[in-house]
Design brief:
The protein is mostly helical. It contains 5 helices and no strands. It has helices at residues 2-42, 55-83, 88-125, 129-133, 136-139.
């Protein structure tokens, strides 16, 4: 039985490492895109994404999706760790962690869905005219 517990603990560590890796890679991706957007704004190139959204919003939402995924991994690691001879204190801590991470995930997901709904509406009706006027295509007469 102790060998089984050790396997569970290693799985928890691996799952937690996966969460950390996802956060790290997502952070690097977001930083890379943010740098590109920053310099493209300085050169007045591509201030809008293809569907008329502010590219900073696109980066933030993409980063949020990765964070939501990493929260799921972190929660799974906590659940695995608690399955090995849990005490009432550990169960209480897990319950608090579950509530906090579920709330974070809920609000992240809701914000993502709202932004995607706005983007779908923009695609259906066309981008905001004030934003289109700022695009390079509008300035170049294209």
């Amino acid at each position: 039985m102790e060998q089984f517990d050790q396997i569970i603990l290693w799985l928890a560590v691996g799952t937690e490492a996966a969460a950390a890796l996802i956060i790290g890679l997502a952070t690097l991706e977001a930083i890379g895109y943010a740098i590109l957007v920053y310099f493209s704004h300085l050169k007045k190139i591509h201030p809008l994404s293809a569907d008329g959204r502010d590219p900073r919003e696109v980066i933030r939402l993409k980063f949020g999706r990765w964070l939501a995924l990493s929260l799921e991994f972190a929660l799974a690691a906590d659940i695995l760790r608690t399955t090995v001879a849990p005490t009432w204190n550990e169960i209480g801590q897990l319950a608090a962690i579950i509530v906090l991470r579920t709330a974070l995930n809920f609000f992240l997901q809701r914000e993502i869905e709202q932004a995607e709904a706005k983007a779908a509406e923009r695609r259906a009706t066309g981008p905001d005219p004030s934003l289109v006027a700022a695009s390079p295509e509008a300035r170049n007469g294209a």
